[in-house]
Amino acid sequence: MQRVTDQLDIPVPDDFHLHLRDGELLRAVVAESARWFGRAIVMPNLASPVVTVAQAFAYRERIVRALPANNSFVPLMTLYLTDQMTVAEVKRAGASDVVFGIKLYPAHATTNSAHGVTDVAALDPVLDAMADMGLPLLIHGEKLGPDIDVFDREKVFIKDVLIPLVRRHPQLRVVLEHITTEEGVQFVLDGPETVGGTLTAHHLLLDRNDMFRGGLRPHHYCLPVLKRMEHKRALRRAIRSGHPRLFLGTDSAPHPISAKEASHCCAGLYTAPLALALYAQVFDEEGALKQFGAFASHRGQAFYGLPVNLGRIRLSRQSRPVEVPERVLVAPGVEILPFYPEDGLHWRAERI
Ligand code: DOR
Ligand code: ZN
Q: How confident is the model at residue 56, as a pLDDT?
């Protein structure tokens, strides 16, 4: 009989897509990411977006100050691309040792994206400068329009915006973040060496049915929105394939419960506390545990030109479901609900 793996040691991973927020929210959430990850690509979509290198420096300082004592977590900062981004700012970003990418949010695609890009092609000189400086473009891949169905936004973006962009900028490294569709997976699989992609734990675990099970579930609402189960299966096939440029990015996106349980619910799942166990459970279900170390701790690092982290994490399968994490208290009356799968979680992570 084949022996089932029930324990796995991997180098400390990095999170290649993370929302840390600011102020009291930052102080409430940063320790969990710093506990499990060595570094993280930190999203710039604050209420007032991070558009300059000086702002990225200042935000990095606030993050470091919010870390627990003696924690060596390294925030890898990003800038928020707007229609006003200049080549000079890109050069400053590329010359800094703080900025690791520039994030493209199509205008109004998601949380705090009102300042996002309205016409990507108009930014070609900026994208050329990014390619010259070796700064990757990190992409929220959704196209919006009055005739575009919300479930088709990723597919349409890839066809109308992303494929032409990669053709125009063959030297520019791009990351299609939080891939949710078969088309997104295929884009990375078919793409040149310059193209990478991240997968979240929640898009691997959930599909759109989970948003409606027994009633509308605001805590399962994220963007890009959960898709049909066939797409979730395509994402799971992709992790089995062991593709060298598909890697871990949680898109952990905390919102206060009051903002989730609202008439206009905010998009985002707070997955950071259990992220590694959530991924391990999916890789286990897919019989792909031997791929997990590469997915979490090697491939993204290679894509971004970062060394593998030194510490190690042990993941182990549990005979009973692990306990549901407590709500996170941000301030009196303000709490965040960490994601926990309804069918239970049978993996545990620990630093060794
Ligand atoms: O679900 C999401 N939440 N998707 C995003 O693109 C943004 C994020 C957030 O900032 O809340
Ligand atoms: Zn995100």
A: 98
pTM to 2 decimal places = 0.97
Which residues have a Cβ under 8 Å from the Cβ of 282 and sit 6 or more positions away?
201, 204, 205, 236, 239
CB 198 less than 6 A from any atom of ligand 1: no
Query: What's the confidence (pLDDT) of residue 3?
Result: 56
Which of 113, 223, 255 should be mutated for ligand 1, with most atoms under 8 A from CB? 223
Q: Is the CB of 197 under 6 A from ligand 1?
A: no
Q: Active site residue: 124, 251, 284, 343, which one? A: 251
Q: Is the pLDDT of residue 288 over 80?
A: yes
> What phi and psi values does residue 176 have, to the nearest 5 degrees?
-80, 110
Count of domains for the chain: 1
Reported as a pLDDT band with limits 50, 70 and 90, residue 110 is confident
Q: What CATH number is attached to the domain comprising 233? A: 3.20.20.140
User: Residue 111's domain spans which residues?
Assistant: 4-351
